[in-house]
Amino acid sequence: MPSALDKKALFLQNLKDAGCSTELTEECLLCYNDGNYEKMLCELSAYRRTVLLETRKKQKQIDCLDFLTNKIKKNEY
What is the pTM of this model? Predict the structure, then answer.
């Protein structure tokens, strides 16, 4: 784990923990080094939307599985 004093290492670790791709991580690092936080926030917001859509899709799948298993338990299938 990076030292609490090493802001760049903490920043990179957070990107990794968030599941950012190598490409996105490199883009954010460039923005970080250039001080272009507005562009970085735009990139991270776009990634967040993608993760949220994936999460909603997975939640729908879970809901369908719950419905199916409940029907099976009640001998309705």
Answer: 0.81
